[in-house]
Amino acid sequence: MRNPLIKIKEALLKLKQSKFKISVKTIGSKEDGYSNIPEVADLNLINGKYFNAGVMIIDFSKWLAQNTTLKLLNCLDKNQDKILFWDQDVLNIFFDGDYLELPDSLNYEIRLEDNPKLNNLDDILLLHYSGSFKPWTVRGALRSESKFYQNKFENTYDKFHITHSWKLSSLLHLILGVFNLSFFRFKKRTKFLKNFVESIYHE
Questions:
Q1: In degrees, to the nearest 5, what angle opens at C-alpha 138 toward C-alphas 137 and 140?
Q2: What is d(CA 136, CA 169) in angstroms, rounded to the nearest whole number?
Q3: What is the pTM of this model?
């Protein structure tokens, strides 16, 4: 993966030269029935596009000049009964298609649940793990698709990145990983176990 700063600066310049305040990536549309996110249909988006808020480039000058934060808070108050995906839904209701499209390379989204293929990372600048579990949880780390993330983290910080939303669940997933052999994908299994124990006690 290459340094994303050049592409980010290009996207920001393009945004500043446009009428829009944000640049984001569309992940669903009314035309395809919001096939990946059917819950979006309940938001009644007029422009029929739904974006992912995991990576946003913001023209902060326009944001401040147009009092966007206060308007978003008002939008939240009016639509809190509709919201399922938290801030992302609020942002989509508020902007409703009024945004600049972000290049895929700056928000390459994968869901570990969908068994994504990560064969070629040359064109990806920002890799966005979305979905219900992440490569830094035990459940996610045991997936082969998390190998890229964990290898990069371990090479940089000399340890694996392990967090827990529920420690007992993490332990159960680790035991399951031993029985289904997914744990043995790790070349540095002893280090992973050591880091797992450390993370249990330090969180």
A1: 65
A2: 14
A3: 0.80
